[in-house]
Amino acid sequence: MRIIVLGILTFLFIFDLSLLGLPSIFSSRKIVFVILFIHYIVSFKRFRFNTGSMYFILSINVMIFLWLFILSVSWPQSPLADYVYSREMYFIIYTIIGSVLLANFFKGLDEYARSVVIAMVIQSLIVFSQFSFEGFRVFLENTFQPTGNIEYTRTDRANGVGAEGAFLSLLLATGLYFCSYFLHFKRIITVNYVIFFLCLLTATFLTGRTGFYIGCVLSIFVFSSILLKDYGKTAMLKVLPIMLIAFFSLSFLVDRLGINEDRLEQLNTWVTSVVDDGLEEGSVTALMEMQIPSLSNETVVGTAVYRGTTSNGTTVQHDSGYVQMYSSLGVVFAVIFYVSLFIYLITLIRKVRGGKLKVFFFAYILLIFIVELKEPFIFKYIPVGLIITAILLSGIKSTSKDHKPQFLKKENANGSPSN
């Protein structure tokens, strides 16, 4: 029961749900943040982390926030501009501080990773329901504030709650990442984790190409290591039937729900268009054709605007996170932001016990810095915060020891396979 409660709490923190008619101050993430903060204050475990490097990244980002705030009040406000200082403030709160509060709430990395997987599975079930049932789409539309520019009632792509589009698919892929932690690193090859993995991979296919491509790469790595490298033919004979049963069950479910085949084909064409068209694919060409503001006194100092028109008439309409940071923070502070964040993450990883786990964390960090080319995922707070929390918790209890493979066995309440 505890792990279910933690999974729901993690879900409410990762996905920022806001009910219609209520002020945004009562969103789920803000409420959970207050709960985590209160727990941190009253908990005697709050000094168990070596947070010396956290003061480094926190000080730099506070400095950047103050500079952005000064810029935003120094220049005439443009009604056609979105200012970045609020993003920086939430990055400090949710990514830097929030990761420490989250880490303090869990007993160790295993419990935390399991909670993240449960949270993502909950979201995937919402994604399947939104994609399949018109009544559920209407329920979401009448209950929750819309997230981004994707409506709950759309039918060409699936949507969840509290996140949308490429960001939602990236978060679901993060669930795949933590699921692979149990499948590959912990050697817990159980029915539930195999089904969770396939469920999350399917959800990324329905929501966005970014997460689906990441999920495909993870699938090749995880299942090839399980079936071929580590465990040989025995594991193949045991795991493949589970995958086939899950696949045919999904096909049966699609048929019973009456999902239009043309709709699935349209979705499949959209997902695979990047592979088919390469650099000529519509989204890729649109991103490449977006204008990057030229280097000037304004972009060197910073405009505080990440999208819209600045006070001097410079238009900023680029989707890339790096370009938005360059435009808003200026060259100097953009470099300071990304370099300091990377140094902070690497510093944390160096304290992790176990070379394989270090590679596991570094691969995710490298992934985030790569997909930042497409969208400002770092300034969506959660992806980086999730991995910081995991790294902090990895120091609580060593997870570097390899366990003997456990195939298709139920888990005990504490998450370890039963005999």
Brief rundown of the structure:
The chain is mainly alpha-helical and 419 residues long. The protein contains 16 helices and five strands.
Protein architecture, described:
A hairpin with a 5-residue loop joins strand 3 and strand 4. This protein is mainly α. It is globular, with a radius of gyration of 22 Å. Helix 1 packs across helix 5. 67% of the residues lie in helices and 3% in strands. The protein contains 16 helices and 5 strands.
Write the layout of secondary structure elements.
Blueprint: H1 2-14, H2 28-42, H3 52-74, E1 81-83, H4 85-105, H5 109-132, H6 134-143, H7 165-185, E2 188-189, H8 191-207, H9 209-230, H10 232-257, H11 261-277, H12 282-289, H13 297-301, E3 305-309, E4 315-316, H14 321-350, H15 355-371, H16 382-394, E5 406-407
Parallel strand pairs: 2-5
Antiparallel strand pairs: 1-3, 3-4
Helix pairs in contact: 1-2, 1-5, 2-4, 3-4, 3-14, 4-16, 5-6, 5-7, 5-8, 7-8, 7-9, 8-9, 8-10, 9-10, 14-15, 15-16
